[in-house]
Amino acid sequence: MKVAIIGASSALAHETAKFFARDGADLFLVGRSADKLAVVADDLKVRGAHSAETFVLDVNELDRHEELLQQTVATLGGLDIILVAHGTLGDQRKSELSVAETLQELNTNAISVISLLTLSANYLEQQKRGCIAVISSVAGDRGRPSNYVYGTAKAAVTTFLQGLRGRLAKSGVVVVTIKPGSVATPMTAHMKQGLLFAQPKAVGEGIYEAIKKGKDVAYVPGYWRVVMLIIKSIPEGLFKRLPL
Amino acid sequence: MATVNKHPQSWGRYPIAKSSQVVPVYWRDELPNLAAFEQSILPYGYGRSYGDSCLNDGGVSVDVSHLRNFIAFDDETGVIRCEAGVSLADILEVAVPRGWFLPTSPGTKFVSVGGAIANDVHGKNHHSAGTFGCHVTQFELLRSNGEHLICSPEQNSELFRATIGGLGLTGMVIWAEFRLKKIVNPYIDMESIRFDSLDEFFELSAESDQKFDYSVSWVDLLIGGPGLCRGKFSRGNHNQDPALAQKPLKAKKLPLTVPIDFPSFVLNSYTVKAFNEAYYRVQIDKYVKKTESYEPFFYPLDAIHNWNRIYGKRGFFQYQFVVPFEHGREALNKSITHIQKAGEGSFLTVLKQFGDVKSPGMLSFPRPGITLALDFSNHGERTQKFLRELDQIVEDNGGVIYPAKDARMSAESFKKFYPQWQEFEQYIDPKFSSSFWRRVTQGTDSNIPLYI
User: Fold this and answer.
1) pLDDT tens across A138-172, in order?
2) What ipTM, to 2 d.p.?
3) Cβ separation B69–A43 shorter than 8 A
4) Do residues B211 and B278 share a domain?
5) How far apart are CA B161 and CA B138, in angstroms?
6) B392 within a domain of the structure (yes/no)
7) Is B339 part of a structural domain of the chain?
8) In this complex, do B4 and A189 lie within 8 Å of one another by their Cβ atoms?
9) Are residues B290 and B390 in the same domain?
């Protein structure tokens, strides 16, 4: 199995990759920091990965995406699964005060993802098989005052994936939208962690299972499907008064 | 720097400490600047030490549980290198399918490698394999002056010896390397033998420790009478049948969880007596032999998450001592009588003979002799007094108490048990301290560390 992971040093990507490593997969790990990628690659090799190569890239360098895809295919000798897992949980308050900050968030969490998806979709469509999996978020299901910039980016990704899924279904390419709820990772370490926070290992396993089964949309952990169903059903007039 | 709101606790949940801050470490290339902290520092892993050796009340707890990456594993030699927050469970998950096993393991696999070194942990094979520290080949230690030191029996060897069993006080272990043990399959040939007296335990132990890599006994101390105790002697070896290597282990059952603190009256000498009776009787035959997977053999309690909650909110005291063989009978006679008289029920009482494999650790607990591990609900001063009396019996018989399980021994006792503490103190990092260390060294002027 040839798996490319974008944002490979994020906790969720790493936890998911551990399951692919156990299967003896060939891994191509992409991220911003060479040091961190090396740490993750060594770990995954000990855990059973057949190979784990790394590629340093800031996803906001959109003009290098073509090169990235070529490198991925050349290194792995093909491509079965691409997992797009990068993202930043920016400071909502800063975004409210700065257009530049807002656009930066949208670039990292939406535009760069859409660019990568466009290129990899074309490659897999021609190949007529493969899987695109993207870590979106429950935050994209409904805009909330506490994180609507992040949520907007994730909503864009979710909608893009819906369309892409329909298009690629004809060529046998699977598109998996993953919507994790709150997970106890470095990204959320500063937050007060309530009952709904899940452990990264369990979420990584959920993501791996969703990819293996080729699910369309996977909430991980699964109870977030119910939570979001309730949240989505609250009338706007009431919702806008809720401290969410 | 990110800090976390959660306050580190120890497994015995006594005492309750409050760190001034908890600093998580996520990456080897983003280690905190230890010199910048105003308060003292102590690394914290999964909080499986029972007492206060993992606590730093009023100081900084550096949470290393996220340093959880493997670095290298040599399938040929079994040498593995990993970050300090990797748990023994993580290692088993990777190693067992490839025919390797931990060189030794405590009764829970949910401890970190850093903690296994800091407490120089031991297991059922102490008589044949020694402590965890005996198998460590090297590690990297970060000192508060920013130095990264590789410590091994050859390099920085004194700091190597001080760090093994050094209770996390000599600096922060970043990664460690140690030797695993070759196995043919994940199964254990185990035998369980009921015994009805302390003498019978000694006979079984003498007979078993030559032939079996692993041995340990569960004991019931509340029976009274001349036999003093009864129990079940469990012993085992790794199964050697290559055919079993392919046999899949039983699917894991969902772990049970103790969701709430039990009220403190749940565990008393009557319920403990009832439990002991049931546990003793459940094995109908005197002698049982079977081949089972390694997990129930090594980690029966890991199947129940948060089992420490059965002792209620006030927590509990673990108490483990070792006495030299020549005082074994007398010390056990006296301590068992003392426990019976006080009517204190110990729920998970474990008896074992340590062997003479010497650990490199300067402050290590295990040494040749008989070791008894007990636990008692915390009933305040009544329990404290009872344990002080037990300390005296241990001391009179040339024994020592295990720091990793202690929350209350006096400074005076500690210094008698570990006369090498002053030698050890030279290697403590000047910025490091713990609740335990302050407690057991109080009343002495702190030496200025010679080792900088």
Assistant:
1) 999 999 999 999 999 999 999 999 999 999 999 99
2) 0.93
3) yes
4) yes
5) 11
6) yes
7) yes
8) yes
9) yes
